[in-house]
């Protein structure tokens, strides 16, 4: 049956709105890529929108040869890998205990956990705690404070409770205790939720710049996101204060073909690549993994 005129109008409006939303989402990324591949000084003249006007790889050459940025990439990669493994491992173990109906007082424990999702300890008390624990200016300040995620624990807990009890009973009959059951039965069945939460956790670690800006003074421990934030702040300050006069700018133009903005955009593109490469491999787990959190007991 031919759709009614009102239905066709509705469908047309919905498609137009979705196209506009898709464009608004994708264009900033595309423009950043275009600027990163355009000559820096030409970009400063404006008008670079959908395609590089003067194509150049100079920005990427400088970024990839910057020892400080490369060190930042190493720190970010190490933090992401170690942090993701530790957080997922500790959170899954905690969630398995919370999913056991025989755990006495689990309702109270759950209440205490949920409260921490709405009320934090505050920036200053947290800062003092970090210093008292000896984590200040240490790599482990990236790992220890985020070892357990309550949000991830709730999703893990819901997933674990959906596993048929008969499987665990069979493992117990075979002589497995709680630990062996968790490692040999529960975790192998939890691939979708582990993959989904691992990606979320990895992205959170990879994109975080705030922790290092507060708790790290050692320049060798700064992740690349914090270095990028410093570059953005420097770029904004330079534009607002107009630190270089026209004569100085002409002298700089004779010596270089890049600007702070062009280098910043190139850095942003390089930082984004790892996430883009990893995403396709875990995308198939998303629907099943995310829907787990919507199930009610």
Structural features, described:
The protein is mostly helical and 297 residues long. The chain has a single domain, classed as MetI-like (MetI-like fold), CATH 1.10.3720. The protein is 71% helix and 0% strand. It has helices spanning 5-36, 40-43, 58-64, 67-98, 106-118, 123-132, 150-162, 165-173, 178-186, 191-207, 210-215, 224-241, 246-255, 260-282, 286-292. Helix 1 (5-36) crosses helix 14 (260-282), helix 4 runs antiparallel to helix 10 and helix 10 runs antiparallel to helix 14 (260-282). The longest helix has 32 residues, at 5-36. Its main location: membrane. It is a multi-pass membrane protein. Residues 73-282 form the ABC transmembrane type-1 domain. Belongs to the binding-protein-dependent transport system permease family.
Largest sheet: none
Total number of helices: 15
Average pLDDT: 82
| Basic shape | globular
Uncertain ranges: 243-255
Q: Radius of gyration, Cα only, in angstroms? A: 25 Å
% residues in beta strands: under 5%
What number of structural domains do the residues give? 1
Structural class: mainly alpha
Total number of strands: 0
CATH class: Mainly Alpha
Q: At the third CATH level, what is the topology name?
A: MetI-like fold
| Distance between the first and last residues' Cα | 42 Å
CATH superfamily: MetI-like
CATH architecture: Orthogonal Bundle
Helical percent range? over 70%
